[in-house]
Amino acid sequence: MNTTTNKNKKRITGRVLLVGISLLSTLVTQISCEKILDTQSEIAISSSSVFQTASRIEGLVNGSYKALKSANLYSGRLLMYGDLRGEEFVIRTENALTGGYVWEHTTTNLTGDVNELWAQFYRVINSTNILIDGLSATTTVLTEEKRQHYLGEAYFLRALSYFNLVSFYGRPYADNNGTYPAVPLRLQPESSSANNDLARSSTASVYAQIIADLDLAEKNLPLTYATPLLNTTRAHRNTAIALKTRVYLNAQNFDKVKEEAQKIVPQEVAPFQSTNGVTNRLVADIATIFTTNYSSEESIFSLPMSAEDPPAGSALSNVFFYAPDFVLNSSSNGIISEASWPEGDRRRSFVRFDETLRLYLLAK
């Protein structure tokens, strides 16, 4: 009898011990999981904490540059649409998926390629607005020099985006002195659809904002970086000035073009090269620009492309060369027959005559 009781006690004690171990394991597991799950993700960050560390702010800046490499922008379509709006190319396949509507000037508000380019530039603009707004309120996380540097990059990227938008979607500045409506000026971060119906600003207003942003960029950007790669792929002071010369040129304000250009290149006769900041100069042979590394001294601003980080947009080599949707205009009034384009011009090395198609192709 006593033996049976002792055995039952042992069984009960054993069960209590097992239950206790199980409860202890559960508690330890819960505590461990809570610690792991409570750890803040480095890639999913709330808007309230994104400006709390220098590395996160740098990530926002890099992200704004990366957004320019979208398939709809500098990875392909922006470059392609810019070419097709000129008179140098003739459509061969009438492929709407590779800019056919753009070439025909028959786009509508439902045309996908136009909507995608428009939307992507406003994504870049919104990311720069977030940067400007956040950096303006952040005074302790970064050194003042670095904070101003990042602000300069944000102002430059916003200006570059608006310059492309107004060039594609606005009337020329010279048309009625910039008074026609162009594109909406969004200068604050957008976090909802409440401001979707923002009215279009005039061409002149957009140009004025671009110049204001570039003036701030020029003031805040560094003169130079530590490597040729950074001097090409990150905005510096001369990058902002060079873009200003293009903006003033489009506005036909030639006195300001000269004034800004002389900040970089004061020489009146060749050879021309910058005397301050990054040493930008013309290369001896223009053909080498497209056959060597993109970080040449002639390149004032280029987005980095590599095997690890390639372009993600339209395959321009197919569109213009290997399976061409567009060929060079070889009519009597086209670029191939242009009398002012001499045979010795090295840019003619970018042209190939296709014996099968009997057409001239861009080989750049």
Care to describe what's here?
The chain is mainly alpha-helical and about 375 residues long. Helices cover about 45% and strands about 5% of the residues. It has 11 helices and 4 strands; from the N terminus they run αααβααααααααβββ. The chain has helices spanning about 1-35, 55-70, 75-85, 100-105, 110-135, 145-170, 205-220, 230-235, 235-250, 255-265, 315-320; strands at about 90, 325-330, 350-355, 360. A hairpin with a 4-residue loop joins strand 3 (about 350-355) and strand 4. The longest helix is centred in the first third of the chain and has 36 residues, at about 1-35. The chain is globular, with a radius of gyration of 29 Å. Mean pLDDT is about 85; it is low at about 1-5 and about 10-30.
What is the radius of gyration computed over CA atoms, rounded to a whole number of angstroms?
Answer: 29 Å
- What amount of the residues lies in strands? under 5%
Number of domains: 1
CATH class membership: Mainly Alpha
Q: What is the CATH topology?
A: Serine Threonine Protein Phosphatase 5, Tetratricopeptide repeat
Tell me what the CATH architecture is.
Alpha Horseshoe
The proportion of residues forming helix, as a percent range, comes to 40-55%
N- to C-terminal separation? Answer: 101 Å
Q: What would the average pLDDT be, to the nearest integer?
A: 85
The biggest sheet, with number of strands, parallel, antiparallel or mixed sense and barrel status, is: 2 strands, antiparallel
What coarse outline follows from CA principal-axis ratios?
Answer: globular
Q: Provide the spatial order of strands within the biggest beta sheet.
A: 1-2
Number of strands: 4
**Poorly predicted parts:** 1-5, 9-28
Number of distinct helices: 11
What is the N-to-C order of secondary-structure elements (H for helix, E for strand)? HHHEHHHHHHHHEEE
Question: Which class do the helix and strand fractions yield?
Answer: mainly alpha
